[in-house]
């Protein structure tokens, strides 16, 4: 199921979608599956599963810590697919967020095939440009049923209108708007450039007539921030705040309780009156 299905359902309910992220294998493979299922149960509409990578250059220290733990624990690509399969079985669109090198190393068509077989909706590829994404564009069309796999590219504050047009033209599922320059991580306030970035991106999408949703990520960590973002974006993407709940917990049970509480707070935020 495409992530756009969940976005469209949320829109029909008069709210933004809540998108939650955690790396596979953190704190363990089974622990990450439990946490992700908890996020679904508590109100996440779309799930992003991070593929741990040895050089997470675009991730902040919180996610880097989690990824390091997953790698030390021996997580493999097969574990990522097992995680996808378990979470996708809940019926929520489940995407893998990954740097491009692991996909290229695994084999692009093979990765797309195995992702589709696991029930995954598609990929979010923060360091892949449309110009370098030919193999992925082909593979995502070839697998995942008649609609193919979602291919989520990023737009940023520095993106020109021409660049946004190129990125949204090849995206499927939704477009990921990165509201802050630099690495990821929870912030105390929503970046002031975020509404303008979403507005510019939506204008390009409206002109093309594709109806592609725009999800905003990088920095949201509270229900109040979620409510603020939900006033102008189609989706609120949260990652570091979930990771932090697990990192700070003394044990998995406490961590899952923290993840559930945070998800409930964020879910309430995206449902607040606009």
Structure description:
With 274 residues, this protein is α/β, with parallel strands linked by helices. The protein has a single domain, classed as Aldolase class I (TIM Barrel). The protein has twelve helices and nine strands. The protein has a nine-stranded parallel beta sheet with strand order 5-4-3-2-1-9-8-7-6.
Number of helices: 12
Q: What's the main sheet like?
A: 9 strands, parallel
* Mean pLDDT score: 91
Helix content: 40-55%
Find the CATH topology: TIM Barrel
- The best one-word shape is globular
**Strand tally:** 9
Question: Order of strands across the widest beta sheet?
Answer: 5-4-3-2-1-9-8-7-6
Which characteristics define this entry?
274 residues, alpha/beta, TIM Barrel, 12 helices
Secondary structure layout:
Elements lengths: L2 H10 L4 E7 L5 H14 L3 E5 L10 H12 L4 H12 L5 E4 L2 H7 L1 H10 L4 E3 L9 H9 L7 E3 L1 E3 L4 H10 L4 E4 L15 H15 L5 E4 L5 H8 L4 E4 L1 H8 L4 H19 L4
Parallel strand pairs: 1-2, 1-9, 2-3, 3-4, 4-5, 6-7, 7-8, 8-9
Helix pairs in contact: 2-4, 2-12, 3-11, 6-7, 8-9, 10-12, 11-12
Summarize the structure.
The protein is α/β, with parallel strands linked by helices and 274 residues long.
